[in-house]
């Protein structure tokens, strides 16, 4: 009997490749998101440190120039925090999009894998039936030869 061949093998390989590519894109998106979260945490830490210093300075006398510099620095940190939050949100949306894309690619690949498995099972059943037919024919021939002694003597 001929060997099993799956006609859609190239399509299945392409879908596997697309799934791996989607996995890589998701990993990159998660890395970008984590990096943005780290930047946001760093900015928030700087902002908290700055507020602590300002509270400390509020108890002592400071010059107008120092107060202006601290206010400017606070505004810059607040703007950085807002920008970082936007970046995190953008990266979160990108991660979600990549995850949905990966789920879709995985579904497409699994459909073909199930089809491949079903066809292989059908091939196995057919192959076993063919082998059983051959064995049944051999057994029937032996049985008939055993019953007909004239053919055996020749």
Q: How many domain modules?
A: 1
Topology as H/E string? HHH
Question: How would you describe the shape?
Answer: rod-shaped
Kindly provide the radius of gyration, computed on alpha-carbon positions and rounded to a whole number of angstroms.
36 Å
Strand content: under 5%
**CATH architecture group name:** Orthogonal Bundle
Largest sheet: none
Helix content: over 70%
Layout of secondary structure:
Elements: H1 9-59, H2 64-147, H3 149-153
Structural account:
It is a single chain. This protein is mainly alpha-helical. The chain has a single domain, classed as Helix Hairpins, CATH 1.10.287. The chain has three helices and no strands. It is rod-shaped, with a radius of gyration of 36 Å. The protein starts with 8 loop residues before the first helix and ends with a helix.
Question: Key features?
Answer:
Helix Hairpins; mainly alpha; rod-shaped; 0% strand; 154 residues
Compact summary:
This protein is mainly α. It contains 3 helices and no strands. It has helices at 9-59, 64-147, 149-153.
